[in-house]
Amino acid sequence: MPDVRTPARPHTTGHGGGPSASELLDFAHRTAADTALIASLPLDPEGRTWIRLDGPGGSEAWLIGWPPGTGTGWHDHGGSHGAFATAAGELTEQSLTAALPTEGWKTLELADGVDRERKLSDGRGRAFGPHHVHQVLNLSAETHAVSVHAYYPPLPLMRRYSRTGPVLRLEAVEQPEEWT
C-alpha cells in the first residue's frame, strides 16, 4: 500500500519525549474527520486494508478499512500506548481491565469481571496505556468501517492471543516487518 502523508501539526510531548495517549487520540480524531483521506482508502470486501500515516512526534499511525465481520483477534501493542478513532461505520472493542504480565507465561486464567466492551461509531475513539489487551471488531453484516490508529513508541512488537472462556493463551509474537 502507498504511504499517505498527513500535514504536520503542532504537538506537545508526553512522558518519554513522545506524544501522550491523549495527544494520539486528538490526532486520531482530527485525521478521522479528514473526509478526503478517508475516501482515499481502498476498501476490499474480503479483507482489511490499510495505509500507513505519519503520526505526530514520531508515532506510528494507520488508516484501516474493516469489511463486515472482520476483526483483529486478541492482541497487545508490545508496550506502546495508543489511541484509535472510528471514521466511518461502527467498531466494537472488547478489552481486559486486568494488567497482564508481559513475559514468562503462555496461559492465564482471567478473573471474573475483567471484560469490557464499547461500541465506537463515527467520530468516537479511545486512548489506552502500554499494557492494553483488546480485540477490535466490525460486527456489521453489511457495512465497512474505517478507523485511524496511532501508537507511541512505534510498535516494537505485537503479542497475539487466543481466548476460550476465561483462558487467555499467548499464541505468537509478531515483529514489525510482519505487518509493514
Structure write-up:
By secondary structure, the chain is mainly β. The protein has a single domain, classed as Jelly Rolls, CATH 2.60.120.10. It contains 2 helices and 12 strands. Strands 1-2-10-4-8 form a 5-stranded antiparallel beta sheet, covered by helices on one side. The chain has a 4-stranded antiparallel beta sheet with strand order 3-11-12-6, with no helix packed on it. The radius of gyration is 16 Å and the shape is globular. It starts with 20 loop residues before the first helix and ends in a 6-residue tail after the last strand. The relative contact order is 0.25. The N terminus is likely disordered.
Order of strands, widest sheet: 1-2-10-4-8
Q: Describe the main β-sheet briefly.
A: 5 strands, antiparallel
Query: Low-confidence runs (pLDDT<50, min 5 residues)?
Result: 1-15
Q: Please report the number of helical segments.
A: 2
CATH class: Mainly Beta
The share of residues in helices is 10-25%
End-to-end gap: 9 Å
Q: Give Rg in angstroms.
A: 16 Å
CATH architecture annotation name: Sandwich
- Beta-strand residue percentage: 35-45%
CATH domain topology: Jelly Rolls
At the fourth level of CATH, the homologous superfamily is: Jelly Rolls
Shape: globular
Structural class: mainly beta
**Mean pLDDT across residues:** 90
Number of strands: 12
Q: Provide the succession of SSEs.
A: HHEEEEEEEEEEEE
List keywords for this structure.
single chain; 180 residues; Jelly Rolls; 12 strands; 10% helix; globular; disordered N terminus
